[in-house]
Amino acid sequence: MSGVVPTAPEQPAGEMENQTKPPDPRPDAPPEYNSHFVPGPPGTAVPQPAGFPGGLPMGYYSPQQPSTFPLYQPVGGTHPVQYQPGKYPVPNQPVPITWMPGPTPMANCPPGLEYLVQLDNIHVLQHFEPLEMVTRFETNNRYDIKNNSDQMVYIVTEDTDDFTRNAYRTLRPFVLRVTDCMGREIMTMQRPFRCTCCCFCCPSARQELEVQCPPGITIGFVAEHWNLCRAVYSIQNEKKENVMRVRGPCSTYGCGSDSVFEVKSLDGVSNIGSIIRKWNGLLSAMADADHFDIHFPLDLDVKMKAMIFGACFLIDFMYFERSPPQRSR
């Protein structure tokens, strides 16, 4: 018994590890544990919505998962982001314009007027400029020319300097440039300055519009005739020979109804067409946002169609162009 060396009592293995392992210096460290997560079988793939080959546009939520986060797509992808028009609009993207299909060139037709050969009715829509009402600064007029299918036919833009527009207002001389879907100027309309302070029956005081198609080649004129109670114009050819007559209503400032300008033959018997200024409610009374409907026979000479089209703008500037109100001093 004297040869046996006494030993310390055996301790469990867990207690020995606790004595040899140094304490964790990190405060409030989470306990170590082994994960018991077992991955399951892969689920079925959710198909992409129809019409979205690359997913939804940037920053939009999925319509099938309203609670998910936005899906951000890479900018430099090989395929453009497509979306259904009107449902997922992209900010700062211009609205696409639907143009009338371009016709083939025709003989004895000025280039660019082939569109009018196929039409018997066009709409002239003036752009509304809210800044004119706020700043009282006259800006260049702009018009959209459309057919009955709401397709764009032409774009008309005024080309007048700032001083002339704001000094002469509705009496200002102007140049209107008509462009097609390719941006080519196919027609030019010019109105010279005419003083109206003298007698109205004086020829030098009557308003006139020259129509050139193509630009630089005159195809006709629209000349005002003095009349005591109504607007009267004559449509002339390039030699200033009267071809048709335009007869307006007794009151062109009618409130609450359309203003009809009839296009008649020289003898006044045959009714050829009409220029109708549509009443658009409060917008027509307080702002420059006119809407004209122009009607003419389908088989009418295309140059005469262009002259009726030009007469619409002289009528607009003379009777329906409203200058911004001036501040009282």
TrEMBL record:
<keyword id="KW-0449">Lipoprotein</keyword>
<dbReference type="InterPro" id="IPR005552">
    <property type="entry name" value="Scramblase"/>
</dbReference>
<dbReference type="GO" id="GO:0042609">
    <property type="term" value="F:CD4 receptor binding"/>
</dbReference>
<dbReference type="GO" id="GO:0061590">
    <property type="term" value="P:calcium activated phosphatidylcholine scrambling"/>
</dbReference>
<dbReference type="GO" id="GO:0005634">
    <property type="term" value="C:nucleus"/>
</dbReference>
<keyword id="KW-0564">Palmitate</keyword>
<protein>
    <recommendedName>
        <fullName>Phospholipid scramblase</fullName>
    </recommendedName>
</protein>
<dbReference type="GO" id="GO:0005886">
    <property type="term" value="C:plasma membrane"/>
</dbReference>
<comment type="function">
    <text>May mediate accelerated ATP-independent bidirectional transbilayer migration of phospholipids upon binding calcium ions that results in a loss of phospholipid asymmetry in the plasma membrane.</text>
</comment>
<feature type="region of interest" description="Disordered">
    <location>
        <begin position="1"/>
        <end position="51"/>
    </location>
</feature>
<comment type="similarity">
    <text>Belongs to the phospholipid scramblase family.</text>
</comment>
<dbReference type="Pfam" id="PF03803">
    <property type="entry name" value="Scramblase"/>
</dbReference>
<dbReference type="GO" id="GO:0019899">
    <property type="term" value="F:enzyme binding"/>
</dbReference>
<dbReference type="GO" id="GO:0017128">
    <property type="term" value="F:phospholipid scramblase activity"/>
</dbReference>
<dbReference type="GO" id="GO:0071222">
    <property type="term" value="P:cellular response to lipopolysaccharide"/>
</dbReference>
<keyword id="KW-0106">Calcium</keyword>
<dbReference type="GO" id="GO:0061589">
    <property type="term" value="P:calcium activated phosphatidylserine scrambling"/>
</dbReference>
